[in-house]
Amino acid sequence: MAFADLLEQVGSTGRFQVLHVTLLSIPILMMASHNLLQNFVALVPPHHCSAHTNLSWFQLSPEETLQISVPLDPAGRPQRCQRYVTPQWHLLNYNGSSAEEGSDGVLQECMDGWSYNLTVMTSTIISDWDLVCDLRSLKEMAQTVYMGGVLAGALIFGSLSDRFGRRNLLLISYLLMAVSGTCTAFSSTFSLFCLFRFGCGMALSGLVLNSFSLIVEWIPTRVRTVTGTMTGYCYTVGQLILAAVAYFIRDWRWLTLAVSLPFYAFFLFSWWFHESSRWLALKNKPEEAVEVLKSVARFNGRQEEGEKIDMLQESMKKEMSNVQGSYSVLDLFRTPKMRIMTICLSVVWLSTSFAYYGLAMDLQKFGVDIYLIQVIFGAVDIPAKVVITVCMSYVGRRPSQSGALVIAGITILINILVPYDKQTIRTCLAVVGKGCLAASFNCCYLYSGELYPTILRQNGMGWVSMMARVGAMVAPMVLLTGDHVPWLPGLIYGGAPILSGIAAIFLPETLDQATIASPQKERLRGKAMQLLGFYFFLLVDVRIYAAI
Prior knowledge:
Elements: H1 3-10, H2 15-25, H3 31-35, H4 38-41, E1 47-49, H5 62-69, E2 83-84, E3 107-108, E4 114-116, H6 125-129, H7 137-164, H8 166-185, H9 190-216, H10 224-248, H11 252-260, H12 262-269, H13 277-282, H14 286-299, H15 303-307, H16 314-321, H17 336-360, H18 370-379, H19 381-394, H20 397-417, H21 423-451, H22 457-478, H23 488-504, H24 519-522, H25 525-530
Helix pairs in contact: 1-14, 2-9, 7-8, 7-9, 7-22, 8-9, 8-11, 8-12, 10-18, 17-21, 17-22, 17-23, 19-20, 19-21, 20-21, 20-23, 21-22
């Protein structure tokens, strides 16, 4: 009797699975709140240099004080990073009109700090720590540090979860997220903020990895696609929840605390979770695996069937023991065919993540209400995933993957040519591009899982997912090039998906193609399944776990 047969015996889709999947999916609703939190806590408010301190003795209105202290930029707004060395009293004679600098109109940096317009958010890390002008690059660095934590968490939690179990590491991830998020909210310096955000990124990796592992390993193959799709939409709904929470909580510290406190509750109820019996059997703990299966049988109302399981049958032990092997990531590059496929997939994953976070983490540039654009960007994922799923089923994986990337790149490039004051057109193009990139992510998971043979599937998924995290880390830093060449970030963000869409053409089609693995390679099935550490944001389709 194979393990799948034992799962059917105790109930593979009973009350236990329903409650188990539901409780594991609820925290996924809050994943987007941390992943996209930077859009709100690091919102850059309108600002300008503070006026000279000695002007408080004069009876001047705020407008007059600003007029004689801060020059105007070409758009007629107060300059952000410069002010007059001395008050320009003669400008008051121009009745508020812009005047050319006189002989004494020498400019200097903001010696007395900055004044911020805090109408959208009452406070952000930008206004608290003056991360503007010469320090404006620190905003992008904060997001890069967070994504670095996501990458580090995958490396650490991936190996630990295979050694100590999914449930134990999930408990640690929930607690780490709660504590790191709370400490982030009370950070007194920017350095501490980055440190604790790094911890949040690590926790997010552990949460994603172990949540989806526990979901997949307790349900039969026939319902994994549906379950994975429903779980993936939890992340999409989470983007809408973030916009709603941020709309009512406009202080960055309270907002961070609000999206972190629920993880204490998740930590408490996660003690009820059962360890994966597959993992227990794989780790030569048959007695514990049998006890867990009996507990599930009792919960599903199949106590009699559960009592019949006295020990793991020899056939099942053989099934679990066949997972031994010594293949590694290096095997992804040994043969020419595998090498080309891995390189093409790496380019696809890196550029998809790179362009996705380049759009999703720079919402202010569209000139639209930040809360509205967050809702729109989150909602577009719903139809995008539906459309790409239909295309993959009827058109094929390769044209769907390539088409989604090319269309995304074209819309981003067209946006460069649209004038800034055409906000509606710019927003519509950006939404289409973001939807295509979300669809590309959906296609990536299924397509990559089908391309790699069973023995190398988890190695391959780990590698390409790591490439995606690298892309996410680099994306914020590209925005800094816009300070010198305003159109350069758009060119890079748009060019990368187009190039990767071309690379996707060289991948083989997998629609209606059977995957055949040799008996020698099948013995390494378990080794591939053990390398779950790099699994990130499995939002839609978990059929790649079908070989577990």
